[in-house]
Amino acid sequence: MGYVGLPLALLFSEQKFRVTGFDVDTRKVEALNSGRSYIVRILPEDIQKARQAGFRATSDYAEIEQMDAVIICVPTPLDQYHQPDLSYIEQTAQAIAPHVHPGQLIVLESTTYPGTTEEILVPILEKGNPAGLRVIRKEGDAGFHVAFSPEREDPGNETVSRHDIPKVIGGIEPAATAMASALYGSIFKRTVPVSTPATAEMTKLLENIYRCVNIALVNELKQLCQRMNIDIFEVIDAAKTKPFGYQAFYPGPGLGGHCIPIDPFYLSWKAKQFDFRTRFIELAGEVNSNMPYYVIEKTAEALNKHKKCLNGSKVLVLGVAYKRDIDDLRESPSLTVIELLRKSGAEVSYNDPYFPTVGHGRHYDLNMTNTPLEEIGKFDAVVIVTDHTSYDYPRIVKEAKIVVDTRNATKGIAASNIVHC
Ligand SMILES: NC(=O)c1ccc[n+]([C@@H]2O[C@H](COP(=O)([O-])OP(=O)(O)OC[C@H]3O[C@@H](n4cnc5c(N)ncnc54)[C@H](O)[C@@H]3O)[C@@H](O)[C@H]2O)c1
């Protein structure tokens, strides 16, 4: 019942499915059962409406037995050595396995490397089932169906509705694909069947690696453009007028979120099993993870021009969410920027309408509380890391001593205190 599972549950509920939301986090279960939301873009009214239509949440896995279909949307992070952490998928599979029944459909939606469904999920489901049920591999087999179908949501994107995002589906065999397509076809306008779960797993990774590599490309070109005194954003705006062969990606302070900074490394890890090095992924990772350091360099340069140094300066980081207008802090480059600023001796504060407090950073507890924007004038520098649309940028520029803008949020504002970075 996280960012992926809850909206999906609500979509099914809207279509009159009897939906049960499973989560090990009992606070989420309690919130949902009392009609409360814990995700900003999901309104409590939507949950209450679903509740009236029969939606409920539970932590009791025994109820899996009563379900016709089970969709798994658990986290797939990287561990501290940047290797895939499949423990959530494994634990979920172990908890589901004893309750799987014949004819049931199990779908994995978590982003992961090709092979996870067949090599990790299926063996655990088969081993943990006391009745000895097996996955259906060919017509005539008895057992349960398994498929992989990646989530392709773009959080905060209001221009594309969830229904309009085609759903890629790869079953272990054609009946699983057909069954999952029938299920998802009731909420998505188009389903895209593919031949295997691994194809569907790879499809999702291709999409995110494409994004990661292209963002790295513009991040590198931004640094070159700054040396050449060319505005990269103006270049991109001009380039995107080409009606074919070009898609605009934008530079920024580094990658954030639960997908783009993480998913590519699922594939580079798996590739090693095949004696293969995914050089594009490694290079993109190197460029993108260096961006917060670049922001610090530019902030130090900007302070230097005012005869100040980072050590001892008061710096306000504007926006901590990993991207505009969302309440998600995962892998946010802001956290790295804050940690690096602190390491350089700066006195760091932050403002973000979505986060009254910030607890854990990338590496240690930050223990910070939101600073009101009224106090902007007391900072030596303001660093725009996340360009929330609710910010009044002309006012921020007017009141701040120095504005380091990593997002082109101050586009069109002419002021000598803005440093584009
Ligand atoms: N957030 C996105 O925009 C997005 C987009 C596309 C794909 N994905 C992928 O979808 C997956 C889920 O991401 P998310 O953002 O929803 O994560 P999330 O952390 O918001 O939600 C995961 C939920 O799973 C629960 N959970 C953990 N272990 C469990 C278990 N054993 N049984 C039941 N529930 C359990 C957690 O308590 C949490 O509520 C990830 O693989 C992610 O990469 C996410």
Could you walk me through the main structural features you see in this protein, from its secondary elements to its overall organization?
- With 421 residues, the protein is α/β, with parallel strands linked by helices.
- The protein has two domains: 5-197, Rossmann fold; 291-420, NAD(P)-binding Rossmann-like Domain (Rossmann fold).
- Helix content is 37%, strand content 13%.
- The protein contains twelve helices and 14 strands.
- The protein has helices at residues 5-14, 26-33, 44-52, 87-96, 116-127, 174-184, 197-228, 232-239, 263-272, 279-305, 333-343, 393-399, and strands at 20-22, 56-58, 69-72, 105-108, 145-148, 167-171, 191-194, 314-318, 347-351, 357-360, 365-369, 381-384, 403-405, 418-420.
- The strands form four sheets. The chain has a five-stranded mixed beta sheet with strand order 3-4-5-6-7, with helices on both faces. Strands 9-8-12-13-14 form a five-stranded parallel beta sheet, with helices on one face.
- Helix 7 crosses helix 9.
- The longest helix has 32 residues, at 197-228.
- The mean pLDDT is 96.
- It binds nicotinamide-adenine-dinucleotide.
- Nicotinamide-adenine-dinucleotide binds next to helix 4.
